[in-house]
Amino acid sequence: MITEAGIVSMGFEKYPNENILEATFGALCIYSIEGPYLTTDDSIGFLTKPFDFGLNCKAIFSDCIDEACIALTGGMFSDSKDDLEDYIKQKKAQAPFLVIYFKESVPRIIEGKYRKTELNGDIYIYDAFIDDKTNDVTKWEKNELPNILSSTSAIFSEIFSSFKIKPVDVTRFGLTAENVTVHNIKVTIGPVTLSRVEHQSIDDIEKLMIKSTSLYGKVKDKSQRHIAAALAEKDGFKKFLFYFFFLEQFINAQYTKIDNADVSVLFKSPDRLSSQGGGFLNKLKDDANAPKAKFKWCALTIWKDVEDDDLVLFDKLISIRNDIAHGRLTDESKLPVEDVQRLALKLIRNGK
């Protein structure tokens, strides 16, 4: 953790709490995409229209970060083309990019903190959000951003078997009433390694984004934060376990959504047992406790695209999780990370 002296050495000055700065903040999240190779006949480049993901949040696909930022925020991400090229090289990133922008509904008050003002008038604040878990930006990053990433991954992975979303940058900034840009320099960075697979047009990508926004609105579950954590994780064991944590929580949540109508599709009681027979299968369903049993009930009733191979895979994943827990599996290369990811995203697409 950087010391106070270190912060001051970077040109920051500590302001008293009585000195108040009011600005409307937002979060700009940049991800590099592996899988589709975006193509266009337009000399300007590839840029989809913005898509709404809930309140005050838009996302866009582009081969240029600056163009995406202009479309989402009205301003460029970098000061010049050379700066942008240097930034991309530094992050070891490569187009195409998914850029997501969330903006708070109302201004927030920043009391004191370490600040410095640049020659262009921009104000920089050192880690203004570190102790504040209640502001809209932080809550959005915790509760909504994982759902956006998981729903987008679920839709695109159905078309592109190698589709991956990899984090490049997350930065927070705001605007004062005087239109002065306020930057928070706390940045999250993830290394990126990319490959390009299949050419896709703007129309193709926009159709998938429409499906992604629809799925985002349909399946919003706290368990999806594990998907976001897995996407950003490099360690194979942690990545596998994040996906497995998601499966456990998602299956439990989906199991509670099975109703009598779902069960009745499987079993029609004869007229002579109309009052008692119908409840028999419901009672069997309610008695299911083990993850395997809950998975099978969901597959039988509400997950329309889950097949035998998926049930076999889930049994295998449980065994692997147990082997990890008891120290019997220590070779990362033997982990079926792609299989557990594929199953997780498939269940999201099938979620009720």
Topology of this structure?
Layout: H1 4-9, E1 13-38, E2 51-52, E3 57-62, H2 65-73, H3 81-91, E4 97-103, E5 108-117, E6 123-125, H4 136-143, H5 145-159, E7 164-175, E8 181-189, E9 196-200, H6 202-218, H7 225-232, H8 236-255, H9 260-264, H10 277-286, H11 291-301, H12 308-325, H13 337-350
Parallel strand pairs: 1-9, 6-8
Antiparallel strand pairs: 1-4, 1-5, 1-7, 2-3, 3-4, 5-6, 7-8
Helix pairs in contact: 5-6, 5-7, 5-13, 7-8, 8-11, 8-13
Description:
The chain has 352 residues and is α+β, with helices and mostly antiparallel strands. The chain folds into two domains: 4-220, no CATH class; 235-350, no CATH class. Helix content is 43%, strand content 23%. The protein has 13 helices and nine strands. It has helices at residues 4-9, 65-73, 81-91, 136-143, 145-159, 202-218, 225-232, 236-255, 260-264, 277-286, 291-301, 308-325, 337-350, and strands at residues 13-38, 51-52, 57-62, 97-103, 108-117, 123-125, 164-175, 181-189, 196-200. It has a five-stranded mixed barrel with strand order 1-5-6-8-7. β2 and β3 (57-62) form a beta hairpin. The longest helix has 20 residues, at 236-255.
